[in-house]
Amino acid sequence: MKPIINKLRLGLLLASTIYLVTCKPDNKSTKGNTNDKNSIAKGKSDNPPNIDSGRKQSTEIKLAPTQFNYTMNPGKSAGIINIFFTRAKLDSVYGKANVSNRLVQVDGKPMTVTVLFAGTTAEAEIVWSDTIYQKYPVRLRIKNENSIWKFSDGIKIGTSIEELVKLNAQDIHLYGFGWEFGGLIADWRGGNLDKDYQAKVKTNIFLAQQGKTSIDEATKKHIYTQQRLNSNDPTLKLLNLKVSIIDFFFM
Known about the structure:
Layout: H1 2-15, H2 27-30, E1 71-73, E2 77-78, H3 87-94, E3 99-106, E4 109-116, E5 124-130, E6 135-142, E7 150-151, H4 161-168, E8 173-175, E9 185-187, E10 203-209, H5 217-223, E11 228-230, E12 241-249
Parallel strand pairs: 1-7
Antiparallel strand pairs: 1-2, 3-4, 4-5, 5-6, 6-12, 8-9, 8-11, 10-12
């Protein structure tokens, strides 16, 4: 089963991710980007991506039930959800009323994912290896503002880049913005978090700007790139970068 899951994971990684941006660039730098935050595939939109597109504001998100475990262990389990879970078991554990389906786009084709606690602070999207019988989760995505999902070391939606560097005890590298891997932490550079948070293997953590900051054209040109940026880059300190999306992969 693992070879099949690994193969699907690799395909999903190529298709998955959200366009994360820090400010509105010029038309030339945004050509081909998508602003569909519900999509986990490359989009085909000429409109510049919007950092808030597809994300529910905190005033619209309901509080989640507190009796469940929402702690993630990289590569192992998300709460009690592990690689052997099924949709039927989700229904049994969390209640059918709290488990639903959502249609997203993968490589331009519709794909149904399972949503746990939709519209709440515990919302999570689950992609299955077996999409027909909804068995063997491959990825769990968290993106709601004020989400109560977190890792055992405290990393969660809203954790700042400064906090990540402190936990890692080493500068980190992230991809520049304005493309499908924009804001993704690409390399923990051998720090404390390197083993547990290997990008594209165990966990994808995306950063995005919080709030609005006026940025000049020279700065835009610097950060809108497919090249890696170092967390100690003075330009990044202007952006108030925080974790905005977490993709947890089951192994």
